[in-house]
Amino acid sequence: xxxxxxxxxxxxxxxxxxxxxxxxxxxxxxxxxxxxxxxxxxxxxxxxxxxxxxxxxxxxxxxxxxxxxxxxxxxxxxxxxxxxxxxxxxxxxxxxxxxxxxxxxxxxxxxxxxxxxxxxxxxxxxxxxxxxxxxxxxxxxxxxxxxxxxxxxxxxxxxxxxxxxxxxxxxxxxxxxxxxxxxxxxxxxxxxxxxxxxxxxxx
Amino acid sequence: xxxxxxxxxxxxxxxxxxxxxxxxxxxxxxxxxxxxxxxxxxxxxxxxxxxxxxxxxxxxxxxxxxxxxxxxxxxxxxxxxxxxxxxxxxxxxxxxxxxxxxxxxxxxxxxxxxxxxxxxxxxxxxxxxxxxxxxxxxxxxxxxxxxxxxxxxxxxxxxxxxxxxxxxxxxxxxxxxxxxxxxxxxxxxxxxxxxxxxxxxxxxxxxxxxxxxxxxxxxxxxxxxxxxxxxxxxxxxxxxxxxxxxxxxxxxxxxxxxxxxxxxxxxxxxxxxxxxxxxxxxxxxxx
Lengths: 203, 287
Fold this sequence. Notes:
The complex is a heterodimer of chains A (203) and B (287). With 203 residues, chain A is α/β, with parallel strands linked by helices. Chain A has helices at residues 31-39, 41-45, 62-65, 71-87, 104-109, 112-129, 148-153, 158-165, 187-201; strands at 6-13, 21-28, 55-60, 96-101, 136-140. Chain B has a single domain (5-143, 168-282), classed as P-loop containing nucleotide triphosphate hydrolases (Rossmann fold, 3-Layer(aba) Sandwich). A 9-stranded mixed sheet of chain B has the order 2-3-4-1-5-6-7-8-9, sandwiched between helices. Chain A binds chain B through residues 38-42, 68-70, 72-73, 76, 79-80, 83-84, 87, 113, 116-117, 120, 124, 127-128, and chain B through 26, 29-32, 41-47, 50, 53-54, 57-59, 251, 254-255, 257-259.
């Protein structure tokens, strides 16, 4: 990947005493890479790290959705990025894809027409992607709402969204425990197996 | 998959070829409307399509293609009765067609597109080159009755302006472009005539065919008289949906809950939103 790509590793544990430990790898990269992926199959196929993602969050800028001149592009850009990634076959069938509409306060402030457009955008995503993305979800957020009412109308803030994204779903073969490696397996494989066995038993 | 079907969009500068392509890409990529043709998958390189379509989505003027920005667009399509197929559409500059008229030459590059084309979409803007339409000509004629007689009788009057190809009436230019094609193609040609910016003339209350017959009779007669060489039909297409240079009209278009509703396609008495219809016709639908 380019220098613009960074990964942040967070080791997290729930505040509850019996909370699950979770290692989370967040990718942070230039939006330019996704613009290129939107425009080109070849560039989409280069985002190979996405194959390992448990959750892909497609962020739709609420500010653009609230603007009649830019809202159709905002919707189309997000959909085209997702479709491009799916066509490039780098989205695991078990991966959760969450379409997150940001800045809900701006959308609400733009009036009922903007909220209707938001609703129709979700419908279009459903129709276009449900068959290819079984675990497709939507979320409205307002990370810095101007008023409390916006915070209440959004589906939780970033904290709730983050917890949801980092909660692994028990789906598909990726989550099934692996069998013990053979005696002559590479030491790295044995280490990996011991590590996953330990975290599975003692989360 | 077999060789891609190939269509040729021809027309003078500003006749609406690129705007049509932008609206077409929006409709195909959006996938939510009932259309004769559907996209099966995205094209490999979509930078150009996305660039022009962004302008269309924002009701902005879609940038005209010039000789340096010509592109070949490949669409992966499917349609009832067609099966899956690839469609190649070169987005050629209107200037290239203008040069054909003035220089009497066609580049090898363009000729190759002509040779491959399985159908031709001929674009004309109803408002392009004002003064070449018959209604305008008739008005002018009425306003200068007797003018020519007086001029002829004046001794030492300046000679009339020297003729140049730019002075060709619009319809004569279009007929000339079709004649170029017929000369280079050795098979029966399928031509969809598209009167673009149809919203500008739909208040006349006539069908696209009647509009051509009334305003561009030479073109209409050429199309009908050469039915042994070409099969044609005429569409009225409003790809933008209205006059985007008018601020209030532009805002009305942007306020529509779905940009798909901006598009109007009329053939005979039928009006709908399916912009793939002219392409489906070119590929053999309804024949």
